[in-house]
Amino acid sequence: MTKNQYVVFSLGEEEYGINILAVSEINRLKEIEITKVPKAPEYIEGIINLRGDVVPVVNLRKKFNIGMKDLDKETRIIVVKINFQNVGILVDKVGHVAVFEEHELSAPPEEIVIDSNYIAGVGKKDEGMVFLLDIDKVLGGKIS
Amino acid sequence: MDKFNIDEVYYSMFLEETQEQIEKIEQDLLLLENGQGDKETINDIFRMAHSIKGASATMGFEDMERLSHSLENLLSKIRDMKININVDIINTFFKGIDKLKYIHSCLSKGEDYVLDINELIEEINSLTENSTKTIKNEIELNGNGMEDEENNCKDIENLDIELSDYENELCEDIDLRFNIYKIVIIMNEDTVMKSVKAFLIVNNLLGIGDVISTDPLNFEKICDEDFKNPFKIVIATEKSYEEIYKNINSISEIKRIFIKKVRKSKKQGSTPKNVKIISSKDNFKRKDISTIRIDVNKIDKLLNLVGEFIIHKENLIQIGDELKRKYKTDPLVKKLVSILPNINYIGTELQETVMSARMLPLDSVFNRFPRMVRNLAQKSNKDIDFIIEGKETEIDRGIIEELVDPLTHIIRNAVDHGIETKEERRRKNKEERARIILSARHEENNVVIEIEDNGKGISIEDIKKKIIEKNLAEEEELQALSEKEIIQYIFEPGFSTAKEITDISGRGVGLDVVKENIGKLSGIVEVKSQKEKGTKFIIKLPLTLAIIQALLIKEGNYIFAIPISSIIETIRVKENEIKEKIHRIGDLEVFDWRNQAITVISIAKYFEIEEEMENKKLFVIVVGHSEKRFAFIVNRLLGEQEIVIKSMGAFIGKDKLLGNIKGISGVSILGDGTFAHIVDIASIIRG
């Protein structure tokens, strides 16, 4: 049931999930150097060289307006594929893969820190809530 | 034959061939209209219409068949001189071709189409039947008399049914107990896919004997147009005339068969032990370069890989140099250093080969314009000779696709605004028939495309008026400018001197877009004009977009690459010279370059990079953009290098992830895996 599997990662105190089907790979920062792009929007961390492919990296903290945090050894770049284009998203750390069945999902609550448009649903587990992201919307549908 | 699916092969062959035929008809029609066509041109069109008819009938495309049939009827009347060609006929013919094109494009996309061709067919038929009608605007043919049918018959009698020397040689090795026959087969002229027919014939004959040779030799590869009718075969067999005749005649669409026994068998009664095929070897006769069609994506993938390879190659060579310095005497290092030049050489060759595989002749773009010019000229009652030169010039396919719009725009402009009406030209004592020349040629590492007309030229006064009207500049400013500089304003956004909006141009898309598009291709566009003499647009493009020579510079933590093709000069300015060379005038800084004051642009400031001012000296890079010169100020030069361009087009632009970033046209991956941003000079200059 890959359909209901989510890669769970954290930004600050909250946990978020991306459908595993959208994820192509997860990279550590020590293996990859991020090059800044002059005059790019603030939430663009830069571009990376993914085996010859130029992939822009979005800093999700900046995109969601959650306070800044220095990059550390747990920082990861999750590469997702949208419209045949790879895009990286920078997150604090990647946890595990979780399965959420339909009945474990609920609509996003109204009082959440980030734009509720970005949330496709909320997965509930014993340990807490995971906000499942609509990654197309997060990246603004702004990719050709 | 059962090894591959005939239907599929037929279908794709059908599509390919009809497309070529339709295109050829279109070109021939234009020739006819210009009076350059002759009897042979008409025959040509006739043949092609005929074979389209045949092919579409075979494939069961009724509309196509009916349409080409009626066109063919019209043509046969023309051919027999019962109707003279005039503009009406050509126009109707073009309409028919358009419909055929439309059907063809739908078929190739596998789409259904809705099209009513009855009206058009009636129109064509009425032209055909109306053969006595008096005709206006007659177009003359450089006719050189009647030929055909009669001649054809003679040809058949003169058929060469003896063995050629080459064939004789082949026959010497054949066992004497076989008869050797030479067979000459004439297929119906309208046979579609003659090569397939030929294949069937040969295949059938292999059942009764050995095929020694065929003429044409590699008939499988020959397309219909080039297929030499008759098709000749030399066969060694024990069978009789009748059996051979029956064997061949079982195949349809064969007009006539001639068989001659050229050598009698010496021993009778023995049977061949086994049937050996003596293949028709490719020999010196073969002239064509064999080609295959490849998916463009594969070439692109290959190019990407080569790009990667080159990056790593540069890296490897660097490491080799370092090793050599460190461990001079180590035999392994010596070995490594000795093979590195080979790697380097292969890399360069690979790159060039792949690049050349991406090159296409410009004719695919150029060929669409004669028709456009013709239509526009007719609409605006102008008489124009449209001349194309150098359409075989090759350029990267990535560039070709982007050229259509800018060229269309410039040529439209030339027809609509450049060329005067017939009356006007008469008044001006100019030749009534105007001329537009579209030409292309290689010049060093560039392709130069020119569009030249002999129309009224660009009026400097009109431009000045417009500039002031549109508030693009003040009158006093204009006083100081040369005509050359004033004319550049036609490339400004929002500039259009067209007096009225016509159907043809003035759609709100101006020459600024042309300039921007050409700029995106790292090209430049210039204009030269002389009042009443004409206007000439000159477009200079790089041969390829994928790999360029660039100067790498460093500002803060960023590495930028400036295309060498735009750099005119690099000047080092020492700390104590800065004041005397760079002057401040209000907000503007200018650099004194060979007694010419040119605008200064600081790369660091432009990209909002914080400078560490430890470096007191600086470099001025003089870059050229059309007629203008600019001084880019940079802090560090890293050197010149070949770079592979990676587009970021998918992410840059309004509403895209990286936003509408200005000043960067792409990136390149350097030897150590980091990026250099490729500077987009055109957009930096625009500010």
UniProtKB/TrEMBL annotation, chain A:
Which SMART domains does the record match to this protein? CheW
Listed InterPro entries: CheW, CheW-like_dom_sf, CheW-lke_dom
Q: Which GO terms describe its biological process?
A: chemotaxis; signal transduction
Q: Which Pfam families match?
A: CheW
Q: Where is the CheW-like domain?
A: 3-144
- Taxonomically, the superkingdom here is Bacteria
Which Gene Ontology cellular component annotation is one that this UniProt entry carries?
cytosol
Q: Mind telling me which PANTHER family this protein's record contains?
A: CHEMOTAXIS PROTEIN CHEW, CHEMOTAXIS SENSOR HISTIDINE KINASE-RELATED
Q: What is this protein called?
A: Purine-binding chemotaxis protein CheW
Q: Which organism is it from?
A: Paramaledivibacter caminithermalis (strain DSM 15212 / CIP 107654 / DViRD3)
Q: What is the lineage of its organism?
A: Bacteria, Bacillati, Bacillota, Clostridia, Peptostreptococcales
From TrEMBL, chain B:
- Cellular component terms per the entry's GO annotation: cytoplasm
Compartment(s): Cytoplasm
Catalyzed reactions per annotation: ATP + protein L-histidine = ADP + protein N-phospho-L-histidine
Sorted alphabetically, the Gene Ontology BP terms of this entry are:
chemotaxis
Q: Tell me, what is one Gene Ontology molecular-function annotation carried by this entry?
A: ATP binding
Keywords for the protein's UniProt record, in alphabetical order: ATP-binding, Chemotaxis, Cytoplasm, Kinase, Nucleotide-binding, Phosphoprotein, Transferase, Two-component regulatory system
Report the function annotation for this chain. Answer: Involved in the transmission of sensory signals from the chemoreceptors to the flagellar motors. CheA is autophosphorylated; it can transfer its phosphate group to either CheB or CheY.
Q: Under which name does UniProt file this protein?
A: Chemotaxis protein CheA
